[in-house]
Amino acid sequence: MTRYSQLDALRGFAVLGLFLMNLPYFGLFEWGYVSKWEAHPLDAWISSFINVFIDGRFRTLFCLLFGCAIALQFEKYGSTVRIQNRNRALIVLGFLHGLFIWAGDILFAYGCAGLLLVRYLEESGEKNLREGFILLVVMSLVLFVATATEPETPF
């Protein structure tokens, strides 16, 4: 099997970012955040920095790398059977990890997403593009409605 060192380096960088992203949860496991009502100004600044520069960036990078890995596996195996089995194993591992070790586990969600993604691997690019665009529009509307009806907060 051919390893792509650039992808491995990016994956390591993304895992480091996920670690940084989860530092507040490691320190304050019960709540996972410092209440902004009681926070020291530096805590509020650090929280904002993590949200803007770390949280969304590294999670997005890791998701892109996950999709890239699935595409490489499909290219290698030519079938979705092994990919489905790997994602089922990821679901079991994520469930057990989330249950016994870390409640903030994301492996379960990746396994579920991988199983959903497998159905698109053998479809035409045009069909995937069309369905992806429809999904983007629908989810954008759902998020817009959800945030537009949310009560205002001071932050």
UniProtKB/TrEMBL annotation:
Which superkingdom? Bacteria
Mitochondrion as a keyword of this entry, yes or no, is no
Task: Kindly list the residue ranges recorded as spanning the membrane.
Answer: 12-33, 93-120, 132-149
| Annotated keywords | Membrane, Plasmid, Transmembrane, Transmembrane helix
List the InterPro entries: Bact_Transport_Assoc
User: Which PANTHER family does the record match to this protein?
Assistant: INNER MEMBRANE PROTEIN
What name has this protein been given in UniProt? DUF418 domain-containing protein
User: What is the scientific name of the source organism?
Assistant: Pseudoalteromonas xiamenensis
